[in-house]
Structures are given as C-alpha cells and as structure tokens.
Amino acid sequence: MTDAAELRRRTQEFLSAYPPADTVRPDFLRARFDAGLAWVHFPEGLGGLGLPRSLQAVVDAELEAAGAPDNDPRRIGIGLGMAAPTILQYGTEEQKRRFLRPLWTGEEVWCQLFSEPGAGSDLAALGTRAVRDGEHWVVDGQKVWTSSAHLARWAILIARTDPGVPKHRGITYFVCDMTDPGVEVRPLRQITGEAEFNEVFLTGVRIPDAHRLGGIGDGWRVAQTTLNNERVAIGGMRLPREGGMIGPVSKTWRERPELRTHDLHQRLLKLWVDAEVARLTGERLRQQLVAGQPGPEGAGMKLAFARLNQEISGLEVELRGAEGLLYDDWTMRRPELVDFTGRDAGYRYLRSKGNSIEGGTSEVLLNIVAERVLGLPAEPRTDKDVAWKDLAR
Amino acid sequence: MSTQPDLLYSEEEEALRAAVRDLLTDHCDAAGVIARTESDAPHDLSLWKALADGMGLAGLLVPEDQGGQGATHREAAVVLEELGRAVAPVPYLTSAVVATEALLACGEEGELLSGLASGRRIGALAVGLHTAPGAAFTTVRLEGGALHGELTGIADAAVADVLLVPADDGGLYAVEADAVTVTPQISLDLTRPLARIALDGAAGRRLGDAGPAVRRALRTGAGLLASEQLGLADWSLTETVRYLKERKQFNRPVGGFQALKHRLAQLWLEVVSLRAAARGAADALATGEDTEVAVAVAQAYAAPVAVRAAEEALQLHGGIGMTWEHPVHLHLKRAKADSLTHGTAGAHREALAELVDLRAP
Predict the structure, then answer these.
(1) Cβ within 8 Å, pair A280-B276
(2) Three state DSSP letters for chain B
(3) pLDDT digits (tens, 9 = 90+) for B32-91
(4) Which H or E run includes A20?
(5) Exposed/middle/buried for residue A280 (C-beta within 10 Å: 0-12, 13-18, 19+)
(6) Residue ranges of the Acyl-CoA dehydrogenase/oxidase C-terminal domain (chain A) (predicted)?
(7) pLDDT digit string (tens) for A326-349?
(8) pLDDT tens for residues A261-283?
(9) Catalytic residue among A194, A196, A230, A316
C-alpha cells in the first residue's frame, strides 16, 4: 500500500473516532495533533508521522471534505512558520513536548523578538542583553516590528550574551514568556493608521536556562533556521491568474469604463503582464520544489512581488480619480490579520510600501542574490573580527 | 484554467539542450559568426546541415508519418534557447518553425513538408518579419495564374529554396526561389538578415488560405521567439557576471561594487521570470490550451528583457563592449531586432487587452 493510501485510511479512521460535528474544536485539534495528522513531516509523537511534507495535502483534503475545523493558520503564522521548525531542529525533547502541541492548535500564540531600533538589516548587531543569573538569564532591551506581541503567550528571542566577541558569535536564542512582568508591549502605529506591529520593552525579564534553544553563543546559527523558513513561506504561495493585487484593479477597470484613460491603459496592461509572469515564476518554483529540484528563484520572488504590489496599488489609487483622494479609515486599530484585499486602494498603496522592507529589505535581498546566486564578491566586512562592544554605534 | 502549464524541462529536453549546446560550442564560435557576417554567405549552412540532417531538429514539429520527429513546441523551444544563446546564423525559426507551421496549417502533406522537416530544403514565409499575429500583411497580385509584386523584410529569404507567398486572392502559394529575384537588405540583425523579393510573373502552387495559415505561423513564431530571447538574455547575464568577476579596477573585481551587483541581481530576476513566461508559451503551444494569452504574455514580457540584458551587457563590459570584435553586439542587434519580430511588446499588450477583457478607453 502506498504512503498516500495508508495516510488517507488513517485520516478516515481518525475522522470516525472524532466526528467533526460532535467534537469541540480544541479537543478535535489536540486529537489530530496526537494522531500525527497535524504536520505529517514532523516526527511521531510531535504531531507528525515522519512522512514527506508533500503528503500533508492528502490529510488536508480528507479533513476539508469532512468539514473539520482547522487551526486558523493565518492567525498563528509566526508559530507555525518560524518558531516550530526552529524548536524542532534545536529544541530539547522536553521543549518540543512542552511547546509544539499548543503552538500547533493555536492555544498559544507566538511572536518573534528579533529586530531592534538599532539592528534592522544588520540584525546581528542587536544590543538586547541577556545576563546569566544562576539557573536564569536576565534580559534587558528593546525589540520592534513585533506583530502579534499583544496576543502572544511566547516569543522567540535573540539576545546578546557575550559583548566581548564579534557580533555573530555572542548571541543566544531563547523562548521568552510574554506574561513575564518585565515585558511591556506598546502598539506601533503605521502610516496606514492602524497598528499591526508593536514595540516590546524588556526590563529585567527572567528566562529560565531551560528555555534556551541551542548552545550559548550559537543563537545566530539557530536564527538562520527561523529566517530561512520565513523566506520559504513568502516564496511558496500559489496563485490563480489575477490572484494577487492585480485582481481588484482589473475588476475596477472592467466595471468602471468612465475611469479609463489611455495612459492608465498602457500602464495597466504592462503591470498585468508583469503580474502574470511573476505568478508563472512562482508556479515554476513550486513545480521545482515538488520535483525535488529547488531553484534559487525563491530569493527573487519576494523582490518581484514587493515591486509589483507597490506599482499596482499606486496605479489603482490614480485609476480611482476623485475617489483616489479619499481614504477609507484612519482609525487606530490592532488587527489580528493583515488583509490586503479587504480594504480600499489607498490602504493597499500605503501597506504595500512595507513589502520591500519587512522580512529583508529589497536592497539586502539584491545583495543576497548577487552573492549567493550569481557568486559575485561579498560586501567588504569591517566588523567581522571586531568585538561587538567595540563596534561604532 | 483548470490545470497549470508544465514549466519545467524534462530529462529528455535537458539531454536535447546538452546535445545542441555541444554542437554549437564546437561549430558556432563568436569569432566565426562575426567573420561570416561580413562574407557573401552570412548563413552557416554546414551548421544547418548538422542540426537538421545530423540531429533531425528541423522536423521537430512535423509528425513522424510526414517525415518529421513528431515532437512538440517544448523541444523546439529548447533548441531555440540554445540557438539564441549562440546567435547562430541558421534559418531555424523561419524554416523549421514559421514556414513549417504555415504548411501544417494548410494541411500540406508530402514532399514540400518532408523536405523542410529533413532540412534538405529551407522554407521562408514571405511576410514581413515585423508582422504581428493577426495583423494585416502585404500580398502580391495574382494575374493570369502568375504572381506579381514585391515583398520586403523577409527573414532568411536569401537561403530559402521555397517561399510561401500570400496573394491578393486570399491564397498562400508555394514559389520556388529560383523563380523570383531575392535581393539582400542591409539588416540591423547581422545573423538573421532580411531580403526583398520581387515576383515578375512567378509560378506558384496554391497551398490553402493565407489568413489562418499566416496567423498560426506567426503566433507560433512569436511564442517560440520568447525562448530565443531567453537564450539571448541568459547569455548576456552569464557572460557579464563571468567578466565582472575577472575584470579589476580600483584594485578589486568590478563585480564587487554594489551598484553593479544590484543591477545584475535585478537582471537575474528578470531572466528567471522570462524563463517561466517562455516555458509557459511553449507548453501552451504544445497542448493547445490558453495559447493566445500565453503567447501574448510571453512576447509582451520577453522583448524588453532581452534588449535590456544585451544593453546591460554592453554597458557593464565597458569599452570592450563597443568593439566589433566582442560578440555582445551580435546579441544586442538580435535582441533589438527580435523586439520588432512578429509584433512588438506593445502590439502583444494590445492583443491582451482584448483577450483578457481590459479594453481601451
């Protein structure tokens, strides 16, 4: 029997033991995790069955057909996409058992405490300090751009544990309890009017050494796992034609002939072509991954979509004519999700400005492509062999 | 669309690529191509013989029972990628793709088709190279059973054995090249030269209706041209990256300057995007699904990328890029000419406006 058929049988068995109609959602999700059907590529006992990742689709299709509840993955993206793979790779057995189940079911939301006001593209220069105090670490510093911090139970945190060595070597990776009294979360209002992100102030936060992920001073290497998974998540989307931001503007063009001008027509057609080609490029990348031949295109997809989103939404504001001078709502809110298509063109225009900054700026990504894909010489590094405490700030 | 196009290369397609590249490495070096452009015979007919006769590549689009290989546009696209990379002066796009498609559209079977499929004979569609699929084209007069008139901008006509000529009765006629006067035109693209054809009472054999045959031939030509443009762009990027790792100024490799790294990374992104668009068009031509949109998208995207890649290659090579000796000008001339071939990017965007219902004001 093939893996897929066996997995389908297991899923059906699970569904008869826990009929979605008669099982409350948290119980259903916990049982699904315990049955190894949460993420089949994880090991047995940790929500998986040690199967290839591609087989997850078999489980998802069966559960969807049965009308089963899901774990609302958009709400817990940082936990699923970044914390979980890092815990799996570097966590102790105890950490894996403690954290992964409520992470996956969504009972515990996770956030990421990486960026700082003084450490953006140069993340390794971060200055949040963690000082050893017996079986604990005491953390002081400031983090920024933290989405979900106000909802989160746990955070993945990188902090400086040794200022006396070069910056990449003195960092350690922790799991931080967001309910610690030393954690203060403040909303950070953006140009859109709302606050998706937060500033997080850490003052005398006590983290048990048992919540360290990986070795002392090994945090930079551990963080690479987190960041690589972030880029995989950004590059792996599958879209139908007109599936992205080009959809709303095309719809407006068709429905509102009175808004059309020749100049806008030329620009719209060009962006439509660019959007379709970007979609095909993403699809080709996906087909390469399925065929087990991952290409370097992933590094470029984020660059392409950032530029496209910005140009398309900018055009859309212009297409709206007099309405382009209006904005739907400047009210300060703290949304749980980022919704690109649920709001007006003006919102999309402003929000997409962040696409070339968040998750690696376009400038840094161009360096990465030039150096890792094209093999061009790396940028000169004057900070490589200097102790962090001696760096210019 | 129910299914996604297959945008990858199969193992067989990769093997085909390797074989064509080997042949071109041995028999189509840049210095030879440049020298040939200044001779009386800009086309390389011995290379053509090796591709057609030796490897059977002229007949990829022709069914096996009609003397061809019975392959698809996907394989022809791979051949064109490699020919584009080498700027090979052979009539592959014109004879093995465009003229062959016109014959297939006319339901032509027999000697003419099998002649083109074997590569023993070379065909050229006598429609100006700039003509977009679906656009109007010049015809010659049919008077008393003979053809009269003049057609210009006909690519590779200088080496054609047979011309496929549209006439004013709506028919497409096969005309032997020795029945007409072919005069080379001085062409921007040295490696795909154009010619003027004068017909002064030439005999022709009616193959079928010109309208649908020309449209199909040009659409296929436009779709597969994107793969040639991919080859051109890929060469320009690869060669420039290689050169900038070697070339030193200010005591360091020029490729280490961030201003240039970013330009090359941006170009890389456009080239990988073009690869997806070109594969999309080739697959659509092979399956017959979503063909018009896929071809128009590929052509609207390909021409500016191929031109920019060649222009960047020239600029980033510095002074050496301006010399006749360095091959970058062959790629620039081909890329610029390709941007007008079978319709400009703008013409293909206009076609899309209708196809995807984004109509003009």
Answers:
(1) yes
(2) CCCCCCCCCCHHHHHHHHHHHHHHHHHCCHHHHHHHHCCCCCCCHHHHHHHHHHCCHHHCCCCHHHCCCCCCHHHHHHHHHHHHHHCCCCCHHHHHHHHHHHHHHCCCCCHHHHHHHHCCCCEEECCCCCCCCCCCCCCEEEECCEEEEEEEEEECHHHCCEEEEEECCCEEEEEEHHHCEEEECCCCCCCCCEEEEEEEEECCEEEEEHHHHHHHHHHHHHHHHHHHHHHHHHHHHHHHHHHHHHCEECCEEHHHCHHHHHHHHHHHHHHHHHHHHHHHHHHHHHHCCCHHHHHHHHHHHHHHHHHHHHHHHHHHHHHHHHCCCCCHHHHHHHHHHHCCCCCCHHHHHHHHHHHCCCCCC
(3) 999 999 998 999 999 999 999 999 999 999 999 999 999 999 999 999 999 999 999 999
(4) none
(5) buried
(6) 217-374
(7) 999 999 999 887 777 778 999 999
(8) 999 999 999 999 999 999 999 99
(9) A230
The full 3-state SS of B74-129, as one line of letters, equals HHHHHHHHHHHHHCCCCCHHHHHHHHHHHHHHCCCCCHHHHHHHHCCCCEEECCCC
Query: Distance (Å, rounded) from C-alpha A172 to C-alpha A221?
Result: 9
Q: Which helix (H) or strand (E) holds A206?
A: strand A197-208
- Could you say which of B268, B300, B361 has the minimum Cβ distance to residue A265? B361
Q: Is A230 an active-site residue?
A: yes
Residues of B in contact with A254 (CB under 8 A): 357-358
- Residue tagged 């997409």 (tokens): A352
What letter represents residue B72's amino acid? T
| CB-based contact A378 B277, cutoff 8 Å | no
Q: Residue A273 and residue B301: Cβ atoms within 8 Å?
A: yes
Token pair recorded at residue B72: 């698809």
DSSP, collapsed to helix, strand or coil, labels residue A53 as helix
Model-level pTM?
0.92
Q: Does A240 touch chain B (CB under 8 A)?
A: yes
The two three-digit tokens of residue B46, written as one number: 């011995």
Among the partner residues A241, A254, A296, nearest to B1 by beta-carbon distance = A241
Q: A150 near A334, Cβ under 8 Å?
A: yes
From the CA atom positions of chain A, what is the Rg in Å? 23
